[in-house]
Amino acid sequence: MKILLPVDGTPHSEVEVRFALQLVSEGLRAEFLLANVQEPPSFYELLTTQDPDALQEVVQGSGEDMLRGAAQLLAQANVPFTTAVLAGPDPATALLDLIEAEGVAMVIIGARPMGVLRTALEGSTSRRLAQYATVPVLILNPPRQDVAQLD
């Protein structure tokens, strides 16, 4: 079973990866796909750069940096995984495309603590995945102290 773990380099991502590792320790046989979505270079950056390939390298490098901690946790536990760095203005759309392209069977993603206004304006990647993905999506709530900070 291939399980997608979208990660963004934050401590919340570590919680998701540790939860996935707990499932493996309790008998789940799975391989994981760690994914990070980066914003593509802006129009201005594309127009002013001397080397468009260098911009792509920056995007790729930044995404790899965001994946590093989660990859280390999985590697230390000897759990099979692959990684993907995506670029797109909308993380949910990029992840939905990845789910289809990679034959993912399930997604484990964390709900990020967001204020009411930000949630109303942007929506949430985890909620959009739950709504539109063709596979089950497990949304992990943020740790209690993060939720308390929003009040």
Automatic annotation (TrEMBL):
Positions of the UspA domain: 2-140
Q: Which family does it belong to?
A: Belongs to the universal stress protein A family.
* Protein name from the UniProt record: UspA domain-containing protein
